[in-house]
């Protein structure tokens, strides 16, 4: 018995069909199955996102932490040489906490670690929170704040904005962007605003950019100076704050980015830029302050002044980012440039307190064989960009790590560098395809790093990101259902925005031509079941929608489809090459084509519209079997090609829906859902056409916002691939 109403397969005519709003009771005549046991793992890519901070523990060899802007925090496990994710237990309602604003460790208590979480400060985002752990992040206690934090906003690479007071381990300090300086005297359990702090908070400013201890004196950087007013303050008693006398001023010292203290020479090093970064910087400097002998003396130790000219005539503009002193060698430190696109970013090292510097990039040998995507389609990888996270191991003077917009590089000899990224997956995932045949069980379309062919799930794709052409962010990925060797992709690229593959996604070639809209507004693409027809849609970043374009010659020529609803996502029928579908979210109307995408006519009307998220998917191997996933309205199903739809009540919210191999004895594919069947948003599987659902993830595996896309594996029953927004691709297998 089908749970979704009529089984007839009507061909849509010119007139709009009446809306069907049949409601099917939840759990129709069948009890829910027992919760299955799943094993969850990461599909290995290796980083791919901005690592905004790295912190070695000063008292424990081999212990370090990393933070990311949208993917939570990690602890380095020295035995296994990999990063352990610490925030996968944050669920759907806490997605805003996956951006880590700052982190702190307690030198006197090695097992204690603190995180300040909050991704955005906009009105639509939730408030921040502080997590505190007594077991290095294995478990957490949480305090919700009344202020917002911005772990994925400008300035996210500054810091750290969180500090354990060296005079009292129970006292913590937290710098905020718009609400001044906060203080806790009970190890982060409660917080209050520090009165008398000199910085004046502003609604759109940076606020406190860094907190650092220099002996028993605390320093705070202030990111809202105009370059003439003070931006570095200090307190010796934890109560009275003052502007540091003689501090540098001007554009090159407008924003304090990071600071590090040399306890041997009693000098505080500060990096500066004219903007908080990681982008938008054009000037910067490095200064040191004598806090011991020569107390109060500032010295400009900038390795290279920004603003010169490169060999090709380009202006060499940049700021300075990370700084870290050597705990074992007095006067030895490293600093990084940031946002240096003309000459390329580097890490400078000094062994004499900044009097002279050596660029480590100049002698660097980069080995990216473990994560080949880091070539980004070029002949060789870059040393890095957006370098604000920089750390020198306090137990090994030749062990340096630095973060980029895509990875963490590490060295043990100051010459040979390789990604130190195992276990850290920060990809924002847009598209997933699990092919029914071929070597790869998975193809993915990603933010920033294009499309990947995963011949193995346990190793970064050997081909790296798809090239010819290379894309930044993927906007579309589709496979011909009856011809899985044929795949197409779209995205933002400098040398074309669409490509096709005749070998399942291993190798690619650009479309011979592309519509003019593709350069600035490349949207999703669909291919019919035999690979003969392409439909490409276009949506500009400003929200402007355009009609679809159609090609019947593999992208050699394109023609507009005026009857296609502007901005809709095209969906190909997996069994009938003549059929395409599109859902107009503005009007709540299903459109269908039965002539290979030449024309579209309206089918069911009166369906949900105006919601923030819709997804139309077609059941594999079936003609006209459509499922409409509507964020706040649950699931709708049509078995007649979109002429009518039936609303299912087995779930009340549906964010994304996918299909996988059918259960043994079942004649319909397994369904996988990110949505809500009860009180929580979770990952569910149904083996009976959505009559019943079982939750398959658990409270330890939630990954924040996971509503972009989901796919089962058509060859392995129970296997599911989940797209996350900052934790890469997670996959689960029945155990």
What's the SSE blueprint?
Layout: E1 22-24, E2 38-42, E3 51-56, E4 64-68, E5 73-77, E6 82-85, E7 100-105, E8 113-117, E9 129-133, E10 141-144, E11 162-164, E12 172-175, E13 181-184, E14 192-193, E15 208-214, E16 217-222, E17 232-235, E18 242-243, E19 255-262, E20 267-273, E21 284-290, E22 298-300, E23 308-309, E24 315-316, E25 319-325, E26 333-338, E27 347-350, E28 358-359, E29 365-366, E30 390-392, E31 400-403, E32 408-411, E33 416-419, E34 429-433, E35 442-446, E36 450-454, E37 474-480, E38 483-491, E39 498-501, E40 509-510, E41 522-527, E42 534-539, E43 545-551, E44 559-561, E45 571-572, E46 580-584, E47 589-593, E48 601-602, E49 614-618, E50 626-630, E51 634-638, E52 646-648, E53 653-660, E54 670-676, E55 681-686, E56 694-695, E57 710-712, E58 720-723, E59 729-734
Parallel strand pairs: 1-52, 29-33
Antiparallel strand pairs: 2-59, 3-4, 4-5, 5-6, 7-8, 8-9, 9-10, 11-12, 12-13, 13-14, 15-16, 16-17, 17-18, 19-20, 20-21, 21-22, 23-24, 25-26, 26-27, 27-28, 30-31, 31-32, 32-33, 34-35, 35-36, 37-38, 38-39, 39-40, 41-42, 42-43, 43-44, 45-46, 46-47, 47-48, 49-50, 50-51, 51-52, 53-54, 54-55, 55-56, ...
Description:
By secondary structure, the chain is mainly β. Helix content is 0%, strand content 37%. A hairpin with a 5-residue loop joins strand 23 (308-309) and strand 24. The two termini are 30 Å apart.
